[in-house]
């Protein structure tokens, strides 16, 4: 079981030397990434700093998710999307799995991840259908 992106798949793995200690492992298809190595380096830098986990995990840990919690989250996502669009960046794969908390803190900001399908576009016109099939 794992999550598949355009260039990678994330799987749950157990350390051989410490049974029971689980990690998320991101496996990257180097052939598919050819020519986009810079984006991989940027993603690695960001992921090393992000320690708060995924949105779904946070909701499950919390036990309840209020309308205020949801509105705070959506406000942050919309502000981030607005900023990206002002810069001419279109993400093209926004989904809950790509929303990560910056830190474990209760009031941690949300971060958008996985820009593997993103595109620079300022004309406002895009014709290519893309994204995660289940969300498209």
Keywords summarizing the entry:
alpha+beta, Kinase-like_dom_sf, two-stranded antiparallel sheet, 136 residues, globular, three-stranded antiparallel sheet, 4 helices, Transferase(Phosphotransferase), domain 1, 2 domains, single chain
The proportion of strand residues reads 15-25%
CATH structural fold name of the largest domain: Transferase(Phosphotransferase), domain 1
Mean pLDDT: 82
Count of the domains: 2
Q: State the shape.
A: globular
- Please provide the count of β strands: 7
Largest sheet strand order: 1-2-3
CATH architecture of the largest domain: Orthogonal Bundle
> In which range does the helix fraction lie?
25-40%
Could you describe the 3D structure shown?
It comes from Rhodnius prolixus. This is Protein kinase domain-containing protein. By secondary structure, this protein is an alpha+beta fold. The protein has 2 domains: 1-48, no CATH class; 51-131, Transferase(Phosphotransferase), domain 1 (Orthogonal Bundle). Helix content is 33%, strand content 20%. It has a 3-stranded antiparallel beta sheet with strand order 1-2-3, with no helix packed on it. Strands 4-7 form a two-stranded antiparallel ribbon. It has a two-stranded antiparallel ribbon with strand order 5-6.
């Amino acid at each position: 079981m794992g999550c598949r992106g355009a260039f990678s798949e994330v799987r749950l793995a157990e350390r051989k030397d410490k049974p029971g200690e689980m990690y998320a492992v991101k496996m990257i298809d180097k052939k598919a990434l050819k020519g986009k190595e810079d984006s991989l380096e940027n993603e690695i830098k960001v992921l090393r700093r992000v320690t708060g986990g995924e949105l779904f995990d946070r909701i499950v840990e919390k036990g309840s998710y209020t309308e205020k919690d949801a509105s705070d989250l959506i406000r942050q996502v919309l502000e981030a999307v607005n900023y990206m669009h002002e810069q001419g960046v279109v993400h093209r794969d926004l989904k809950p799995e790509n929303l990560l908390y910056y830190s474990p803190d209760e009031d941690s900001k949300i971060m958008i991840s996985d820009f593997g399908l993103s595109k620079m576009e300022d004309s406002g016109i895009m014709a290519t259908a893309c994204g995660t099939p289940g969300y498209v």
